[in-house]
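Example record

The entry below shows one chain as it appears in the dataset: sequence first, then structure tokens.
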Amino acid sequence: MSFNSSMFLLLFSKVSRIILLNPHPLMMRVLSTLLISSGVVYSDKVPSQIHLALGPTPDSMGVQWSSDSADSTVKYRKANSENDWSLVHGKTFPFMDGGEEKYNQTHHVARMVELEPSTPYEYKVGSSADGWSEKFTFSATPTTDSAKYPIRFGVWGDMGSKDNGAAILNEVTDVVDNGHSFDMILHVGDFAYNMDNNNGKLGDDFMNDIQHIATQIPYMVCVGNHEVAYDFSHYTERFRVVGDSFAPASYPTVHSGNGEGFNNWFYSHDFANVHFVAISTEIYFDYADTDLLAAQWNFVKDDLEKVDRKKTPWVVVHGHRPCYCSCDDDCDDAAALVRDGVEGQFGLEVSEGIRIESIRFDDEMYTCPTTTTKTYIIFLTFKFLFHRDRVGTPS
């Protein structure tokens, strides 16, 4: 990929993102003219689908991208500095869609380390041989002491691509670009509708749609029912960066249609004074594996028992489907299965003194009760929602 100047690269990135989110024949001709006049040559070795995820400690940040290059390198330094770039070499993972075309690509996962908490950094992914991405910036994960409260999370689920996802994506982009950004994004299942559509190419479109925000803000996830194709392989592979950092030692791998992968179906992490636990509600329905259900149930139980409420007084468990349902009749039986478990086992409603509550969000933000005398969990599911939450000290 060659460019006339770095200025054109920045302009092209912004213009093409606007055009692709709002496709129109005239605008597509404008994009083609830009490509031709600039001499831009596309190559499958150019990084795309770039997105961040929290690292296992506040001094690290993971990044994942797709390209056909054999090199998985990220270079980074403090933002707006003249420091030498730090180089980290990551891992490559081949991924083949299960559709008729057997469409395949290579994913890369790397982790930036030795970061100073709450400090801005800039980075590029790719390689000297095959080309680098444009430069992106992010803020390193805060510690409890370094965080600037209130913390801002962007939380949503059921977000499609292109026509059925443009509205929320445009709103989020406006928030990020106008200086009212988030500290972390949490997407609680159902991506693109569906990532496996068009032999997996809609998944590529979706990941490129979110790249503008996901390269600046860690994009944390859990799996939804629309990821079920090929045993959840698109979710497992496209978000390997999460499993690479947080796969629980008790169940380090999951088996999808693409083979064995790091476990990003259930995991936990801290962000400042909040402890997050991601779970898969889908293994109660679409993945008849009692061993996996038991592994997740035991992981959640053990994880919650170890929470230090002085360090992280807020605890959030998130999954795609609710334990309770009041919005329509279709989900009542599904909610009961998550709540009560399979044949009376592995239910999430009550577990050894650990209570998981389900809270419905519509157009308003509800205040969630907490207590410091026992572990009281807020179980969050979000459907067709753009929600901004501020987290400080529970009262």
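Notes for this example: Residues 189 and 295 are 20 Å apart (CA to CA). The first strand starts at residue 48 and ends at 54.
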